[in-house]
Design goal:
Layout lengths: L1 E5 L3 H9 L5 E3 L2 H7 L3 H11 L4 E4 L5 H12 L5 E6 L2 H12 L4 E6 L2 H9 L4 E4 L1 H6 L4 H15 L4 E4 L5 H9 L4 E4 L1 H7 L3 H17 L4
Helix pairs in contact: 1-3, 4-5, 6-8
The structure holds erythose-4-phosphate.
Length: about 220
């Protein structure tokens, strides 16, 4: 399972990349606005840190505008993945970009039918939003299960990129559901490593080691 950092904060990306935990990065307009820097410069900085896919989202909503913005974003680095919304013009742009061998992440997916359309448009990734479905009392994780079954039924190559992750359990549940990748906020990635028994065990080992007087 691929791990992507769901952030535009360059310092967080550097830290997580140094741990060897990152396969890529996803950004969106809200994350870029939160990070505060210039969009194109931020994507360029991220691509200098991470060699895997870096999703950069178009802001246009019409086909021509998306294609124009995609050309600018694709020119930044070969690992830029163009993120387009799951709308009919977005699917049209997805098909056209894939014909040019440009990777595409179709975002804002909230249903199995939408995911099916993304796969039929040849998307590299489709991003179902788990947390936002949970927020409105629907079952985000069931959507990952449904998409996995549909894609396997028809041998679609489109990778399921579980998004809108809010908590550590979302990551393991997405892995159990067969998601190909998961994009995770930095604080949640760090939390994956936490376990009180790990901390307690380490404290005991360190105390016993110090008491033994041994050194390495
Ligand atoms: C990533 O591609 C999505 O834009 C992101 O996961 C959305 O997360 P949110 O629902 O927490 O904003």
């Amino acid at each position: 399972m691929k791990f992507f950092a769901d952030t535009a904060q360059v310092e967080d990306i550097k830290e997580l990349n140094d741990y060897g935990l990152l396969d890529g990065v996803t950004t969106n307009p809200s994350l870029v606005a939160k990070a505060g820097g210039d969009f194109l410069t931020t994507i360029q900085s991220i691509c200098q840190i991470v060699s895997g896919p870096v999703s950069a989202e178009v802001a246009a909503t019409d086909f021509e505008g998306m294609m124009r913005e995609a050309a600018v974003l694709s020119a930044i680095a070969p690992n830029v993945v163009i993120k387009v919304p799951l709308t009919l013009p977005g699917l049209q742009a997805c098909r056209a970009l894939r014909a040019k061998q440009i990777d595409v992440n179709v975002t804002l997916c909230f249903s199995a039918n939408q995911a099916l359309l993304a796969a039929k448009a040849g998307a590299t990734f489709v991003s179902p939003f788990i947390g936002r479905l949970d927020d409105i009392n629907l079952d985000g994780m069931q959507l990952i299960h449904d998409i996995r079954l549909i894609f396997d039924n028809y041998d679609f190559d489109t990778q399921i990129l579980a998004a809108s992750i809010r908590q550590p359990n979302h990551v393991s549940d997405a892995a159990l559901a067969g998601a190909d990748a998961v994009t995770i906020p930095p604080n949640v990635i760090r939390a994956l490593a936490n376990h009180p028994l790990t901390q307690k065990g380490l404290e005991t080992f360190l105390k016993d080691w110090a008491d033994s007087g041994q050194t390495i």
